Amino acid sequence: MSRDPHCIFCKIVHGDIPSVSVLETDQAIAIMDVNPVVKGHILIIPRDHHSQVRDLPEELAAHLGSLVPRLTRAVVAAVGAEGSNLIINSGQVAGQTVDHCHWHIIPRFSDDPVDWPWPHEEYSGDEKAQMAFRITRELNGPAD
Ligand code: 5GP
Ligand code: ZN
């Protein structure tokens, strides 16, 4: 099991820092966020230390994903929410403050204080196609 001795979520996973757990599996825990964006906000945390979502082994990512529908139903029903957000912040620039990959499930109400949606940009010319080409090329490995 990979563990970072300085990581707050590793400490939570190993019981060195207390947390309020709602679900535990062999590979992950789901806990109450200590400072919820909206009350009922939970975090799904893999037991192994991986910094970002891009570092997750695919099987572990699949396991985390498999927990999302059930946890979302439970959170939404428990607080009587009208909807929810599933959010993964990756990297400091994207708002990640704890460097141990985790997934947020945040219950939502029409009158909650969350500032959403995000602003959107527009593509010009063939920018979108070029971007798609570059992403596809990355997915398929570097060119020879
Ligand atoms: P991030 O900004 O990295 O995506 O999210 C980190 C989340 O972890 C925040 O929502 C923050 O409130 C939560 N958090 C930080 N420290 C603790 C802690 O010690 N216990 C719990 N339960 N949540 C924490
Ligand atoms: Zn960690």
What does the model show?
With 144 residues, this protein is α+β, with helices and mostly antiparallel strands. The chain has a single domain (8-140), classed as 2-Layer Sandwich (HIT family, subunit A), CATH 3.30.428. Helix content is 28%, strand content 17%. The chain has helices at residues 8-13, 58-79, 127-139, and strands at 21-24, 28-32, 42-46, 83-87, 103-108. The protein has a five-stranded antiparallel beta sheet with strand order 1-2-3-5-4, covered by helices on one side. Strand 1 (21-24) and strand 2 form a beta hairpin. The longest helix is centred in the middle third of the chain and has 22 residues, at 58-79. The protein is globular and about 50 Å long. The mean pLDDT is 96. The protein binds guanosine-5'-monophosphate and zinc ion. The site of zinc ion has 6 residues, from helix 1.
